[in-house]
Structures are given as structure tokens and as C-alpha cells.
Amino acid sequence: MCSKNGRLRFTTTDDLDLLRAVAAENPFEDILRWGVIHETVVTNTGKPFTLRALKDHLEYLLKLFIQEDKANIKKSGTEEEYEEKERLLQELHDLRREFTSKATSNQPQVKSKSKADQSTSKKCGIEVREKAAQESKDGTLVNETRYNKTLVGDVGSSASGSNDNAEVSSGSSTPTLLEPSHKRIKREDKIKGCLEFLNKRTYQEYELKQKQLNLEERRLALEEKKLAVEVQKLEAEKEERKIQLDAEITERKNHTILMQQQQHCYVVY
Fold it and tell me: Strand, helix or coil at 68?
């Protein structure tokens, strides 16, 4: 749904899709994970949200949560959706505070999440990935081209504004900032695979329809032959009845003539 000025509006379902994806990927630890979050949300919602719109809306939701503005948080949706939204916002608030404090103190290692948080994040991540994979299998490739065009600029702008949060592997000299190119290659391969799958399925559907048309043509041809045989049979029966009728008429005429001749003979004698 769009607002009057043409901007996309977030529904309660969209909020939950965004919060689940953020909880599953934890971009507070690595901002480059926003690319995966963007792809997941666009695929699940079917709406062409920009990366900036997702970040701004997440900040807005966390701000409402911090201010305890429950009226706006619960503006729509069921009680179960509201409870899940509250739980996810609490988890994301704790994650951001944890990783922000660690980045500020310049500690090399980040404190691991609690077992409960890890379990929740893992569960949400699995649900999000399964849902995205299922929709991809069904052919719902939502705005992949638009996403490929806008992702590079959005991720680059995000990375330039938050370089302090980018991590570098301790045992490698290759920085994490090289990951977007690998992700783009992987995503292009995924798109090519999906296009090949769609082309193959389209060709199979075409062949199936062609076979169905051929069968229908054969059925119609058989019906026509059957109808022609029936017509011939009716014509033969009609001709046979005509011959029988003519024979009966001739026989009656002959019988009448014979009776008249016999009566005439009786009168003469």
C-alpha cells in the first residue's frame, strides 16, 4: 500500500518481516548484512522497499520502543503479532546496545549472546530463509533487478558512514569490504539459476499444452469420423426404407390391378 505522496507504507506484517530478518542477520555486528536483510524483506513482502527506508523504519520502531509508545507500536495487528513485535524489538534493542558499547570501547571480541537469544535468532533466521526459499521456488522473484541496481549504492553509503562497525578477519589480510562483490556474484548466479528454471518450466508448460492440443485435435478428428459413419449409416437406412416403401407400393398396385381384372372376369361370365 502506498501513501498519498507515493511512498510505501509499512504494515504490521511488514514490520514483523523486517524485525525477523534483522534479528536473524544482526547487522549491528556487520553492516554488510543489510544487503541480505534487504533482499529477504523485499522478497517476503513483495514491496520494493529501499535499503534506506528499511534502516529508517527500524530506527523509528526502536525509538517508539525506547519511548514505550505502545499505542503506535500496537496500531494494528493481532495480540500475537504485537507480542512477537515487542519481543523482537527488545532483542534488537539489546543487540544494538551490546554491539554499540563494544565498538565504542574498541574491544576486539564481542560478547556472545545468551543461549535464549541465540536460539531465538536462529529460529527466526530459519523461518525467514525457509519462507524466502519457498517463494523463490514458486517463481516469485520480487524486484530482483531493481534490488541489484540499488543495493551497491545503498551498501556503499552505509559502509562509508559506519566504518567503525566493519570487522576484519584476525587471520587474513583481506578486508570484509570485499564481500559485496562476492555477494553480487552469488546473487547473479542465483538469478541466472532462477531464470533458467523459469525458462525450463515455461518450455515444459508449452510442450504440455502442445500435447494437449494434439490430443484434442485427434479427439475431434475421431469425433468427425464417427459422425461421418453415423451419417452414412443413416443415409443407408433411409435408402433401404425408400426401396422397401417403393416395393410395397408396387406390390399394392399390382394386387389392385389383379383384383380389378378378376372382378371384370366375373362380370363377363
Answer: coil
